[in-house]
Amino acid sequence: MDPFLLGICGFAIVIILLALRVPIAFCLGSVAVACTFLFYAWPHGGEFNGSAGWRSATTILTSNSYDFVHSFELTMVPLFILLSQVAYHAGITTDIYNSARVWLARVPGGLAIASILGCGGFSAITGSSVACAAAMGRICTPEMLKAGYGQRLATSSVAVGGTLGSLIPPSVPFILYGIFTETSISKLFLAGILPGIISLVGYIIVVLIWVKMSPSEAPQFSEEKKPGDRRRAALKAWPAVLLFLIIVVGIYGGVFTTTEAAGISAVTAIFLGVMMRRLSFASFILSLRETAYQTAMIFMIVFGAKIFVSFISLTGVSPWLIAQVQAANVSDWIVIAILCLMFLVLGMFLDPIGILLLTLPVSIPLVENMGLDLIWFGVIVVKLLEIGLITPPVGLNAFIIKAVGGKDIQIHSIFAGISRFLIVEVVILVMLLLFPILSLLIPNTMY
Q1: DSSP type of residue 219
Q2: 345 occurs within a structural domain
Q3: Which residues are listed as membrane-spanning (predicted)?
Q4: Domain extent at residue 150
Q5: Rounded distance, CA 332 to CA 336, Å?
Q6: What tens digit of pLDDT does each residue of 114-158 get?
Q7: What is the pTM of this model?
Q8: Nearest alpha carbon to residue 268 among 237, 289, 247
Q9: What angle do CA 377, 381, 385 make, to 5 degrees?
Q10: Considering only CA atoms, which of 134, 138, 145, 154 is closest in space to residue 207?
Q11: Into how many domains does the chain fold?
């Protein structure tokens, strides 16, 4: 069987299975194993040999799984997930929101801005957009609705703020991208800081303009404050600040490797939770259980992706695609625009990790052939994944807010509010494309 045709058929079958809502881990893994079997059992111009195909397929399956499990860098995934769970159950992540809420009480749209800042703080510790949206949606959305905020602003601000988990370090997508592309995860983390801050500021500007044009969307918050409330609220946020400094400053200064920072920050979060008497034994066990569940889910997807990448490398699809681009003599910007469009379209239907691992076998060889910086491209990819989390019809964060916000929340109201933020998302994406220095400034000054 022709290897190239087999590769194209493999991609097509994966897309069809995904459209049928088959879990992506099983899509990638089963298709890769079956197609690898056919590749060796039915070589181009040769006779069918089932035993040879089965031996080769099982060898690739076991060797890729073994290499993946023994990847030292991958240990940071469960460590950062544990950090997020412990920080959430100990109330460390919500302290930033509570602090911002007190300081911004008199600012028009202050609760929405505090929600966005709270999501940014949550993201700076947890690295999971979905977890951020779920946790902050339970806290922030009901409070804004109770204060008289419009449903569109109350829900969309949290849905959009939750996307910061993919960009602000630590970030699970950055970890997986770094492992699959063999780029520095430490530099990827640092590269996401400035774009993450720009995104956060852009969201705040949207809220301020929105409230200025429609004051009824955000009534003045009139909670009575006592002298010293602001100071006490700011001091309560110190555990979250400490954890962020351990991760970012430790990595930037060369004090810790990324894996060491993950382990130290997770242990520190547990110690702080116990010391402040916020982390009970039951909460700790629940944190471990959630960590095991989320880690297993991510690892299953990556298992399938690793096998699929090996299969694609056998078929020659990537070299063929590069040759076609070179023969077409198109501008690098056109290729980048096509890749961005591909990520945006897939983002409307698939989860971010699935998109990332499905597209890397095709996109990375093209980017490397054009001589572009893989760190910069990693930031672009994660930013596109962010946008996909809030893009209809299947913006994952919007449905999470719908699920945790209460039965009165309407999904069309969430997407109506998100549409205002999508404008600034496109502007930020264009800025990151035109000015790579925004992504590379901090990692270029790394130790």
Answers
A1: P
A2: no
A3: 12-42, 111-137, 158-180, 192-212, 233-255, 261-286, 298-322, 334-362, 374-401, 421-442
A4: 74-279+397-444
A5: 6
A6: 888 888 777 767 666 777 777 778 778 888 888 888 889 988 998
A7: 0.84
A8: 247
A9: 170
A10: 154
A11: 1
